[in-house]
Amino acid sequence: MTSTDVLLWVAVPYVAAAVFVVGHLWRYRYDQFGWTTRSSQVYENRLLRWGSPMFHVGVLMVAGGHVVGLLVPRTWLEAVGVTEHAYHLGATWLGTVAAVLTLAGLAILVYRRRTVGPVFLATTRSDKLMYVVLGATLALGTAATVMFQVLGDAYDYRGSIAPWVRGLLTFRPDAGLMADVPLMFQLHVLSAQVLVAIWPFTRLVHVFSAPVGYLVRPYVVYRSRDDRRTGSRAVRPGWERVERPGAARRR
């Protein structure tokens, strides 16, 4: 294990995590009005209707696969009956489907931003940087999966990358676990760290803006204009006459 290994697999991950946390706190404190996806649906909806669901469903599948593959130890899965062969088949083929779905959705969204004039004009520098880093992270992860898991001899990342990630979370990192990891996996991990670092300063912050309050908000009371409604008084067309206060008493 060299000093470069310690820098890349211990220092950089913690720096990226610190920027992620502090950056979100800073932006929430000073840029709440910018805490949004900056939706461009009003400019174009046809491509967005296809690209957005594909991308978001694919990303959720990718995130779920990473949680299981990196955070759940192999012995836990074996204890519930998931064999190594079953895990490999599920992770490889479901992961490939998720990657293709995510990349296809991202390609549609990028094409939309580049070709639809109003959407392109609404694209900021942070959006462009986010798309580049996000696309690189997804492309490198997909390439590593295809090269080693589909076409290769199934690299055992659960014996190296997974315990390294769990070591970071428990503040006992072992940079030596990443020293002999294939280059494509290393590049994927490094690009993911860059994505984590720039996350608070891009539209990706909307991930933490789920409308949870909607579930407990009070009912919205409104008056219906439906002619078929039931009530004690018939609906009159047009404006209703408004009398001055005291007019009824003078009658």
Primary descriptors:
9 helices, 251 residues, mainly alpha
Segments where pLDDT lies below 50 for 5+ residues? none
Q: Would you tell me the structural class of the helices and strands?
A: mainly alpha
Number of strands: 0
Q: So how many helices?
A: 9
Main sheet characteristics: none
Estimated radius of gyration: 26 Å
SSE topology:
Elements: H1 3-30, H2 46-71, H3 74-79, H4 84-115, H5 117-121, H6 125-150, H7 161-169, H8 183-198, H9 247-250
Describe this structure in words.
The protein is mainly alpha-helical. Helices cover 61% and strands 0% of the residues. The chain has helices spanning 3-30, 46-71, 74-79, 84-115, 117-121, 125-150, 161-169, 183-198, 247-250. Helix 4 runs antiparallel to helix 6. It is elongated and about 90 Å long. The mean pLDDT is 86.
What is this entry, summarized?
The protein has 251 residues and is mainly alpha-helical.
